[in-house]
Amino acid sequence: MEIEALRLLLILSRTLNFTQASALAFMSQSAFSRRISQAEDSFGVKLFNRTTHDVSITPEGEKILPEIQKLVSLYDSILSDCHALALSGAKPIHIGYSVYPFGLGFCMKVEKKLAEMNLPVKADVSFVSFEESIKALEDGRIDGLVSVDYPHSVEKLSSIRVQKSKTYAVVNCLNPLSRREALGIDDLKGEKIIISGRKSMPALFAARKEYLISSGIEDEAIIEADTAREAMLMASRGDGITILNEEGHINTIDTVKPVPLESGIAELDFVFSWLSDNSSESLGKYIEAVKAVAGSVGKGDV
Predict the structure, then answer these.
(1) Do residues 128 and 79 lie in contact, with contact meaning Cβ atoms separated by under 8 Å?
(2) How far is CA 120 from CA 75, 184, 219, 282, in A?
(3) How far apart are CA 102 and CA 120, in angstroms?
(4) Which residues contact 122 (CB under 8 A, 6 or more apart)?
(5) Distance between CA atoms of residues 234 and 164, nearest Å
(6) pLDDT of residue 248
(7) Beta partners for 222?
(8) 110, 233 in Cβ contact below 8 A?
(9) How confident is the model at residue 252 (pLDDT cuts 50, 70, 90)?
């Protein structure tokens, strides 16, 4: 069994949520679920119990998953030791992320890819707020950034897409719409609609509000929120339905359910950005690993 299959088992054991786990693994939910089933078949035992709304660890999983963690940790330790030997004396580059947990998870996958590709690059990774991230690039505090879409008018900013996001209507579980497989904009008419990002992402916020109104949602039915977290809490109280992209926090509240939203509403894509005049050899190798992790999504610049 491949080591990556074992990592998927561990991700699911930590999140106990297929939507969140598949997002952290950069896979579709169907592909992730299939890999989990294949891994369980290889072991000959079920490690997880699944119901419509819940995932739990089986008694067999309670015994086997800690052993899997030991095996993966040993593998990573050996890989890290080999990578450290290659990095002796190397000057680190600095990578920032402004989206959590996506950004941190992506950086960890890039780190593993660097080792697998035998690229001698040392990267220090840290969180940078959305508001400060572009300035951090321009000031040279970071060499690269994992974030959501940025205006391409920023001078000398280059970006590659690392994952396309999915848009969800986050619906209170008491609302009958929460039982639908998917929703369209017409389904939301007559509901209160919460949109977030009024302060943190004003351009996206304005684009979404304009789209909703042009699609027949009454202006009076739109509730404004500063952050996604605030919008989630409002939806959990039944104040309305919020529209969010697939991120780690989308499944952290039990009283709401994310339902795929099929619409032309403005979405967020996750991107890796850097200043085009940064010709550092180490950054070039890091970008090579970023593209390898992003796969076909990261082949074209955005």
Answers:
(1) no
(2) 19, 48, 54, 8
(3) 24
(4) 87, 90, 91, 92, 93, 282
(5) 26
(6) 46
(7) 193
(8) no
(9) low
Which pLDDT score, from 0 to 100, does residue 246 have?
64
Task: 102-108: list long-range contacts, CB under 8 Å, 24+ apart.
Answer: 102/23, 102/24, 102/146, 102/163, 102/247, 102/248, 102/270, 103/127, 103/146, 103/147, 103/270, 105/24, 105/26, 106/26, 106/146, 106/162, 106/163, 106/270, 106/272, 106/293, 107/146
pLDDT of residue 273: 92
Band (pLDDT 50/70/90 cuts) for residue 272 is very high
d(Cα 256, Cα 254) in Å, to the nearest integer? 6
Residue type at 145 in one-letter notation: L
Which pLDDT band, with edges at 50, 70 and 90, does 142 fall under?
very high
Kindly state the tokens that stand for 73: 């940790």
Tens digit of pLDDT for each residue in 230-250?
888 899 999 999 998 765 456
Locate 34 and state its tokens.
Answer: 């299939």
The Cα 178–Cα 159 span in angstroms is 36
Closest Cα to residue 242, out of 289, 283, 198, 277? 198
- For 54-80, the pLDDT digits (tens) are 889 999 999 999 999 999 888 878 877
Of 286, 40, 37, the residue nearest 162 (C-alpha): 286
pLDDT of residue 279: 81
